[in-house]
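User: Structure please.
Assistant: Input sequence and predicted structure:
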Amino acid sequence: MAVPPINSRKSKTDVGVTGNNGVAKSHRPLRLLLMSNRQVLAVTPQLQLGNELSDEWVLIDCQSAPPAVSSDTSLATDLAATPAQEAFRWSKFVSRRRNKKGSKSQGSNWQMHLIATDQQQPFMAEVAANHNGSPWLLFIHGNNQTLASSLRACRKLQKNFGVNVVLFSWPSRSYYPRSLHFLAASLLFTLHPSTRSIARIAAAKSIHEQQKQYQQARKIAEQSVPALGHSLHILHRHLLQPLSAEGVNCHLLVHSLGHYLLQRLAKEGAMVGDWQCRSAIFHQADLAAADSLEWLDDLPFINRERLFVTHNRRDYALFFSGLWHNNFHPGKVFSRLGNGMQVDISYPFNLVDFTHEKGVGLRHAIFWRRDLSPELKQRLLSLLS
């Protein structure tokens, strides 16, 4: 059965409809709200969040920043300049262009506005009252994610599927940069027999650093449960409930280790309100494939009839997660929910297999790929209809 696309901005119900400010809903930009328990490092002149855990959660309104205009990148020829000065100007220009991407801060593509605690409820009420008619996507990211990488994923989700996004960003630790250096060195040292012992030491060091990071991320996920529960409660009461009354759907997208956070939320019995998402998508879940999903009964916002679990047997990240959780047993690499060969089916869900989908390959993140094929995009849209 064909499934209509998610983008409802051109639906009949939106044609000619205007809100309180007189602007047609279909012409209003997509919204991105950030809810996070990351530590606030600075508020002025630019809002910055760190990778450390905070005891309080914050609400941030993210809007696309206008492109910066800089006059110093101009290459207009100065008639009075000497050839040496022109050569120096060109070298500086090329250097700026080469380092532009690496020098961007976490908020350079966004205007990030911190919403004061006493203004959070009125702000959500205002967002709901002036909604654009498009569906909302509640996104909980996984392991090894900085705030900047999560915001980039949100931008791609908006571009690919035309949805408003609420991102819950928890301070999952990014991999220690030197672990990748040790891994690269181990590959180089294997080229010659006399240095292969050094290669084994470098590889062991790299694996140790990644194990340490993964353990820290799981502990932080456990500590982030109260913030997630409180965020969901406030979100439902002041944003999703009014939107539901207007016929606007909300979907849930959880990625990788974010499922562990969700599982802990269910086990701790957090009060998140009596509401339900239109669909719930478990995207490459880093959970044991052999374990039942019965704990979802304690989360009323999960729609059991539209619970989708994505599967990619070639997923490289879940391959290593399977090794880590099973004492590096080579026969247990396909033991996670997102890549498992033997998945517990006692709890009903819809399995969506992307293993042989063109262009997926070894990827761990599928939804926010930049180069989605039309066929793959349509499959993903059907999950969010």
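The two ends are 12 Å apart (CA to CA).
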